[in-house]
Amino acid sequence: MKKILFVLLITACFVVLLQQWKPLAEKVQEKEGPAEKPFEETSKLLEQNYKIITVSFPKKSDPSKQIQKALNLAKKSKIPIKVIIPEGSYTLKKALHIYSNTWLYTSPNTVFHKANTHKEIMLLNGDFKVSYKGYDGNSNIIVDGGIWDAAGKDKVWTPSVFGFAHGRNILIQNTVIKNIVGGHAIDSAGNKDVIIKNNKFLGFYGAGDEPYIEAIQIDGMISKKAFRRFGTVDFTVTKNIRIEDNYFGNSHVKGMKPWGVGVGSHSTALASPYSNIQILNNTFEGMTYAAVRGHNWENTLVKGNRFIDCAMGVRIDKFGSYYTVDGKHHITNGKFITSQFKVESNVFIETDKKYK
Questions:
Q1: What CATH number does residue 227 fall under?
Q2: Percent of residues in the chain assigned helix, strand, coil, to nearest 5
């Protein structure tokens, strides 16, 4: 009888513990949910309610100043803002700064020309020299549409067209970024949950000593040389980035060529790999170094892409130099992380076309 009571007591205790544990488990599951679906929150940016702000351009006004006035409204707005730029052609004389909870919308035919006197990044998510940390910089941002012409056809060195650092939930879509000398189309330096889709990256010119420059650089805040405009060198690196349905090629403007690398990295911190990288359904045409370059990447999927006349389709670096935790460059080659790297269902095409 005592044995039966003992068993019943243990069973009752087990049931009570199970009931108490279940809500806790559900809370843990809820907490871990976003990590399991890192792009879900980014995709939902398009579904939010936005305060509409249409930029006006009085006669003889400076487009850079007019657009920036609208973007500045996000700093004090209690709800997200959608800045709409009317279709047209605009010359930008200064960098544009975009802030949290902003949708910058332009028609696909709107052109932003970079002025010859403009030596900075065309669009970046923060203010110069501000010490953002981690992924707590300006976030929840959409850049949607527009032809962003860096005017590199004149062989003037241009830094990156878009520079983003220390942010999360970044969506860049429906843009054309072209004619760049020496820099990147997009520099993602330490961002989390990034989607780059349905864009065209056209036309690059390099001096020749750095053939590995990327249209989209997956980067981190690992050195003062990595991203110089703002932010803290705290080894925040880009993770959870999806690059899909884009085209990488030539602008066919005199002097321009296809990119050296379509998507890749060329600097890293050994102990801070770039992770959860998805490169899906893109077309890379004529890349002169490698269409995709994995450089201390882990948990990577390269799937459904078309590689046309590229010097290499996918390059995975196993060794290389890296930054140490003190921010100094380590010349000695280290062994990189290459775990969970999948390359599948891609098409490699070689024609008689020559890219020069």
A1: 2.160.20.10
A2: 15, 40, 45
